[in-house]
Amino acid sequence: MAESENKTPSQTIDGNTLIAMCLSRAGVEKMFGVVGIPVTSLANRAVALGIRFISFHNEQSAGYAASAYGYLTRRPGILLTVSGPGCVHGLAGLSNAAVNAWPMVLISGSSEQGLTGRGDFQELDQIAAVKPFSKFSAKATDINKIPTCVFDVIDWALAGRPGGTYLDIPSDVLRQRVEESEAEKLITEALNSRNNDLIEKPKVSNSEIHKAVDLLRKAQRPLIVFGKGAAYARAENALSKLVESTGIPFLPTPMGKGLLSDTHELAATAARSLAIGKCDVALVVGARLNWLLHFGEPPKWSKDVKFILVDISKEEIELRNPCLGIVGDAKDVLETIHKEIKDDPFCLGKSHPWVESIKNKAKDNVAKMELQLVKDVVPFNFMTPMRIIRDAILGVGSPAPVLVSEGANTMDVGRSVLVQTEPRTRLDAGTWGTMGVGLGYCIAAAMAAPDRLVVAVEGDSGFGFSGMEVETLVRYQLPVVVIVFNNGGVYGGDRRNPEEITGPYKDDPAPTSFVPGAAYHTLVEAFGGKGYLAGTPDELKSALSESFSARKPTVINVTIDPYAGAESGRLQHKN
Asked: Which cofactors are required for activity (predicted)?
């Protein structure tokens, strides 16, 4: 039983310490969050046990960091929040993890159990609040239940299709105490009773592998499509072997870019419309047939295309009803397919009509884009600074920087122009098209890959969601360069037609407008970071060169012509 009064602190530990001990035993190395009543002590105890705690200004950004950290490391990102509104703010990150299928655990303090329903401080039924976004939720109603609850939420975050889970810790439980020897016993028992079946990968069916290989072998115009699920599975080597041995062109989703280099001769990104419109068999690995892939339906796809869908989730395959579904880990399935083909090899060859058509179309589209990129347009459009940024990033070499891309026009143009050459080096708005992820993702990337420079290319609207976190960059001295495309607002300032400018508040700024010429670069300078204002190619090149070399917290404020952009949302591909 938990002790409240009879033992001195030297003989016992409280709930805060027990949670921290469990997190440490579970292998947690980083935590993100905003502290306050009742979880400040929990954060301090975690730090004392060797867990690095990254403290944010806002739970939303901390949650986005936790979700991205889970994706980049394959270990659940941990978000710690206070009760009530803190938990609600944390739902941004938890929902982002759920939709993107990234492992994350939200841990929130909650109000006193004995005061439920009486209007306690920040009282909320948090289990109910997180339900739409949590794969599994647990409430530690007593200190003795803490170890089992902690290990359960971590294991469930990783089980099957990864996602977000929730741990609720009432204030009274955090204050409860238990003898140190009893705490060790509770942890050992919980560790020994963990359900290892939760995190076991499904066995790949040999018969389905045979069918997949037969479909690919007989295809006239095969295509391999892969997404961030394949990136999460660390499937790059298996993908490379399959592509090199079969000569099949490939198409990554935006966050699948870099698993195989964008510069690979079989990359179909610059011929996307042709590739998906004409392929007759598509092997789709770790990518969902959702809006990002036009639901796998005409007119973007051929009505006769046969999909081979590889996903860790049986439910996802049943939802999409492909020609062939294979439930399994992306890496395992690809390795098995390659092994099957290796026993009876086939290869399209460079002169195959399908391969030639993809290559020629991609070459033509790249050449057209380069004609736009080669021009130095001042005041800046989106193309000129994006080309300069692309060249600067490529100039870093390996390990390549992690690119964080956020915004409307900024992200759309960047997806076509910026080049990914290494796996898991692109983070963007993702499946949900979430704005506000930028600074949180930057911090997650700096924590997950400390050997890499992190470069954010953001619209001014996207930056505004989490701009205060530049102080967090400075406080932890993270190697992050934030490049803000400043065009004066959402899509670019006031885009209203004359007939829309009417009514009693017609003289107000447009709903899409921000303060013209906003000095975003001075924000980071207020905290001791480095800021640059760039409006010409030479100014931008100089700022990039200096900041990339320094690897210190930096904001580069790039002045963009407010009329250069356009309203955007869904993926638009004209190639």
From this structure: thiamine diphosphate
